[in-house]
Amino acid sequence: QQEKEDLQGKLKLREHLSQTAGKSEATPAPSKNIDLEMKQLQCKLKNSNTEITKQSTTIKSLKKQVQEKEEWIRELQAKISQLERDLTVKRHFIEDLRSCLKANQENEKTSNETLESLERKVKALVEDKKASIDSMKQRFDVAMKEKSQYEQMYHKAKDDLEKKDLKLTKLERKMIETECAMIELETAGSQQLHGLAKQSTQALEALQKELLLTNDKVEEFKTFVKTLTRELHHSVQELRTKTKLAKKMGEMKACKKGLSQESLQLAASILNVSTTDLYEILQEGDDEETAKTKMEFEKDEEWLQRIQKLLDAQFPFASYLMDAVLEKLNEEKKLVEEYSSLMKHTV
C-alpha cells in the first residue's frame, strides 16, 4: 500500500510537471525525462509483482502446513478410537489430547483468518495494479500528445530563428553602412569643432578681459566702502570726543561758579598745576563714562566686522550694506545735533 501511495504521488507530480512544461516554450528535451520516469515506474511495478509472488508462495506453504495438521488430527482421532477401549485407564490422557485438539483448532482458525486477510490483500493489490496501469496508459497518451506539441513548437522556433538570422545579416550590413557614414560625420564634425574651438578661445579671451575689469571694479568698490566706513568711524569718534569735551566744559563752568577763584588758585598752587588741569583731574575717575566709551568702542568694532562680512558675502548684499551705513550716518547726525546744542549752551 505504501509503494502504491508513492507511485500515485509520483504520477501526480509528473502530471504537474507536464502541465508546467506545456505552458513554457522549450525544446523536446523533457520527453526524455518522461521516458526515464516511466521506466522507473515500470521497474517499481515489477518489484511489486515479485513481492506479490513471494506472498503467494508463503500462502501456499501455509496451506501445506494446514493440510499436514489436518492429517495429524486424523491420525490423532484414529488413535482416540483405538484408546476408547481403555477409557477408565487412559481418561486423563484422552483429556490432555482433547485440550491439544482444542489448541490446534484455535490455531487453525487463526491461520484461516490470516489466509483470508492475505487473499483480500492480494485482490486489493491486483485491483490497484490494474488501476495504476490504466492511469499510466492514459498519462502515456497525454505525454505523447505533449511530445507532438513540443515538436511543432520546436519547428516553429527553428523557422523563427532562420528569419531572425536573415534580419541580423541585413542589420549587420546596415551597421557597416552607418559606421562608414559616422566616420564621415566625425571627420566633418572634427573640422567644425576645430573652427568652433578657435572662435571659443577668442571669446574666452574677451571674457577673461571683461572678468579682470569687473574684478578690478569690485576691488575698487570694496576699497571705497572700506575707506568710507573708516572715515565714518573716525568722524563719529571725533564727534563723540567733541561732545564729551563740550559736556566737560559745561561742567567746568558750573564748577567754577560753585567754587571761589581763590580756593581754586590755592589748590592749583599746592598741586603745582594750572586751573584747567585741575578741572581735568577733578573729572578723571568717572567710571560710568569709561564704561560708556568702552561699550561704544565695542559697538564700532562690531559694526566694522559686519561691514567686512557683508563685503565677503555672496550677492545680493547691497540692501544690508546700505542699512549698516545709514545706521552709522544717523548716529553721526545725532552726535552733530548734540554737539551743536552743547556748544550753544556753553557760549
UniProtKB/TrEMBL annotation:
Q: Which InterPro entries match?
A: CNTLN
Source superkingdom: Eukaryota
Q: Where is the composition biased (Basic and acidic residues)?
A: 1-17
Any one cellular-component term (Gene Ontology): centrosome
Q: Name one GO biological process term.
A: centriole-centriole cohesion
Q: Which residues lie within the region annotated Disordered?
A: 1-33
- PANTHER family in the record: CENTLEIN
Quote the protein name from its UniProt record: CNTLN protein
Q: Which organism is it from?
A: Chloropsis hardwickii
